Amino acid sequence: MADRVFALVLMVLVAAFWVESAQLPGPSGGAAVGPAFLPRIILATIFALSVLLVVQSFLKAEEAVRFTGIGGFFRLHWRVPALLAAVGVYIALMDPLGFVVASIIFLAGAFALLIREYTRGVVIAAALIAVGLPFGLNYLFRTVLSTFLP
Amino acid sequence: MDFAHILEAAGELAQPMVLLTIFAGVFFGIIAGSIPGFTFTMALVLAFPFTFAMGPIQGLALMIGIYIGGLSGGLIAGTLLGIPGTPSSVVTIFDGFPMTKNGEPARALGIGIAASVIGTILGAIVLFALGPLIGRLTLNFGPWEIFSLVLFALTLVAGLSGKHLVKGLIAGCLGLLVAMVGVAPTGQLRFNFDNPQLSGGLDVLPVLIGLFAISQLLINVEESRTDNRQAAAGAAKIRVPVRRVAKDIWQEKVNVGRSSMVGTFVGTLPAAGAESANFISYDRAKKAEKKNPEQYGKGHPGGIVASEASNSSVAGGAFIPTISLGIPGDVAQAIMMGALILHGIAPGPGLFDRQPVLVNSIYLSIIVAAIGVLVIQTLLLPFLARVTMVPKAVLVPSVLVLTAVGSYALNNRIFDIWVVLIFGVIGYILVKLSVPLPPVILGLILGSTLEESMLRALQIAEPSEFITRPISAAFLLLALASVAFAVYRGIRGRSREATGLETQSTGL
């Protein structure tokens, strides 16, 4: 089932890129082929392989990746989407709040999300990293790499 | 061979800052390899932005240090905890962990370190001998040969890097498709979907960080549910018994040589990597053992030697296609290639002539890094044993911040961090779907070379040149053969499984 969904997503991707490639001009400036030539070969290959993947998923069902359902995944691994959401918020906050403040907030939140056993050592290490890492990186990038973080 | 270039390279590396950089790289590589779930590939992508402030030789030396340190560092967690620090140290566990349980963790680690160092140096010697020869052969490559070579590399990687050939090929094509975003070699803008940020195309580094680092970190978050690492008893007091280890290595000298050659050869195959090398070497060592073959898997020194000598010697082999052909031997090589390109140096045909000092500095950096592995791992074993216990809950968010800042530093734009996140999610989903990631990276890195060589070839001659030029035709035939071999391997694997099932069901 998962392989078939994957193949379907690939076909949609192929369609989107194919439509976009239709807007590209033909060969110019002495070139034998235009900018859409190779991308279209790649897109056609992906499409053919996607069809093959669907066929394989029926013929060799025992080898196909099993799809256990979104609900089961979220129940078991809810921390994964939660962490991804936290990273999204972190990136969005980086510009308005600056790298140091956004990183401190992100690290504190992510540690709270992931730490399962709060021993004294872990809490001290997490607190030191949450504060020290953003300041340390900011200093390192500014002085060594001459890169100013947001 | 020009000794003046070797001496010049040695002079560059002998500078205190460069030597310090290699040793720092080795140290961080060993740490990255020691922590289960934090691979040296991740350490390489994190170190990438720091190479901006260095010259090409120093930048490459840092990466080589991390690479060599990381290849060896995996043995610590494998030996002490029974959990591989890196995928390439899986086989080390077979005999390293039983030896630890038998009360000899220091001996197991000592054998692993020694085999790893010897393997690295032997791999570097092969690279030193073969690299220039292959480099000379490629000097006459025209666009036809380069196009066919890239095609061969892509099919080879797709076939070797996973169980499913179709998914491997899809992965390679997806990498190529991502490489098509931005300005075409003919000058037109394409596939930017009206987003001005995509006009310059997608940089390799954020895509690489997303695919490899973020996806791996998300898998770490999943696995943290079942993270029950237990510190090995007495790990804090480990001291390597030097004489005993020297005796073990002497008794396994043939095994060291054979496993190193296997590792070097496997390293030359794009994406075959250290993971395959140590399984093959272990199998060969077990079959060659006459006295105590039954001791393999129960703490035999030969098992550790085979695994560590082969996975470390991969480095020398993997550099051969990278510097002579411009085809990265593994993901780590792809990252190093990216660093070189960033410094305006294009690996591939002609590099030996254009950058002889840089090429010689690669050989020497590998050897210096091997010495660094010996010194650092031997002296800091008690500390490194504790590093293996770093909790993933602390590690994952910290590395996420490092990846964000590393990708931002590339172009000073937040858009690149979004690219990291998006490709992290894509990488995670691809891993879940058993789609191999190395072909995506290879496709992404080689996409522009493939297209440029194709356009040049079609511009100056008929398309038939691709099959009438002997070297180009040979690469195309090899590409077909690699697909055919992958199909054959799949069919044979299935028929073996079927035979096994039949035997089980009939009770024979």
Key structural traits:
heterodimer, A: 150 residues, mainly alpha, B: 508 residues, globular, disordered C terminus
Mean pLDDT of chain A: 88
User: Structural class, from secondary structure content of chain A?
Assistant: mainly alpha
| Gap from first CA to last CA of chain A | 44 Å
> Which stretches of chain B are poorly predicted, pLDDT < 50 over at least 5 residues?
503-508
Q: Beta-strand percentage of chain A?
A: under 5%
Report the total helices of chain A.
Answer: 6
Overall pLDDT confidence of chain B: 85
Strand content of chain B: under 5%
Q: Show unreliable segments of chain A.
A: none
Indicate the multimeric state: heterodimer
The structure class of chain B reads mainly alpha
Care to describe what's here?
The complex is a heterodimer of chains A (150) and B (508). With 150 residues, chain A is mainly alpha-helical. Chain A is 73% helix and 0% strand. In chain A, helix 4 runs antiparallel to helix 5. The longest helix of chain A has 24 residues, at 120-143. Chain B has 508 residues and is mostly helical. Chain B is built from 22 helices and two strands. Chain B is globular and about 65 Å long. Classes of the chains: A mainly alpha (150), B mainly alpha (508). Chains A and B meet through helix 1, helix 2, helix 4, helix 5 and helix 6 of A and helix 8, helix 9, helix 18, helix 19 and helix 20 of B.
